[in-house]
Amino acid sequence: MRNTFSLCALLLVGGFASAAPKPTVPGAEILSDIAYLPEGRTEKLDLYLPKERAKDAKLPLVIFVHGGGWAKGDKADPRSNNIGEVLVSESYAVASINYKLAPEGLGNYHANLKAAFPQNVQDLKSAVRFFRKNADKYHLDPDRFALMGASAGAHLAVLAAYTQADVKLEPTDDGHGDTSSAVRAVVGLYGAYDWESFQKKFIKTDEDKQLARQVSPKTWVDPRDPPTFLIHGTEDIFVNVSQTELLAKALDDKKVPHKTVIVQGAPHSFDFRLKQHDMKADLLPFLAEYLKK
């Protein structure tokens, strides 16, 4: 498994080498660059609302978290646009967020995560809390939220969803009071879920091992965790498919409802345009079951 950051690696892992354009999501009313973090933070989010919606509709919300090796990526990248377009067409509101990233050039994923944690995962929780607090303003149903991420974003989304009860990882200074960060469901696209096996080469000290356990979604699996959708390709050269298989087994052991899809021949960094598999056929029924009923 490669852990150095070449230009090619950044492109494949979910970041994009040049600045991403403004979001382009057909069928959506786009609210760009919404501030959801405390004053002084530059990370913002975009919200896509279906143009065709009832005036008094309270929409289910999917919060999407971009990838990029914990150090790159942007809320308006092409994959985020594709995810947004498909979900908006299914009458979901979609928020695509920027969050705390590591400084560039640290050299490996473990160093990147270590430099940005726990702020990165707390930012996801702040996004949930922000929208729950402002649900009426944005025409949302506060009881029907999901987190969804790709690559590094999948790791953070699942970690945020599984640690809602851990006060040490809850934001304390985001201005959203005691608003809950709980979500109804979570979706992980080709994420890393067992950090020690994922970054074994770089975990050398007891401190590293303790951190690896804390940042592993697999560590936090509990029967109360939200229903989970996982998808991963067998030809992923950046995050081995075994990461999803390990989490799926842990979910089975704890009897957490989940749907796990392993796609033969699929690479890293895909969206609804995946050639090897119709992702809509799996993911849309899952989201409908937990966010529309």
What does this 3D model show about the protein?
The protein has 293 residues and is of the alpha/beta class. It has one domain (7-292): Alpha/Beta hydrolase fold, catalytic domain (Rossmann fold). 31% of the residues lie in helices and 19% in strands. It has helices spanning 7-13, 78-89, 109-116, 119-133, 152-162, 195-198, 206-214, 242-253, 279-292; strands at 28-35, 44-50, 59-65, 93-97, 140-150, 185-189, 228-233, 258-263. The chain has an eight-stranded mixed β-sheet, with helices on both faces. α4 (119-133) packs across α5 (152-162).
Helical content class: 25-40%
The CATH class is: Alpha Beta
Number of strands: 8
Binned strand content? 15-25%
How do the helices and strands follow one another from N- to C-terminus? Answer: HEEEHEHHEHEHHEHEH
CATH H-level name... which superfamily? Alpha/Beta hydrolase fold, catalytic domain
Order of strands across the main sheet: 1-2-4-3-5-6-7-8
Low-confidence stretches: 1-20
Sheet/helix structural class: alpha/beta
Please tell me how large the radius of gyration is: 17 Å
Distance between the termini: 41 Å
Average pLDDT score: 92
Number of helices: 9
Rough shape? globular
Domains (count): 1
CATH architecture: 3-Layer(aba) Sandwich
Biggest sheet overview: 8 strands, mixed
* CATH topology label: Rossmann fold
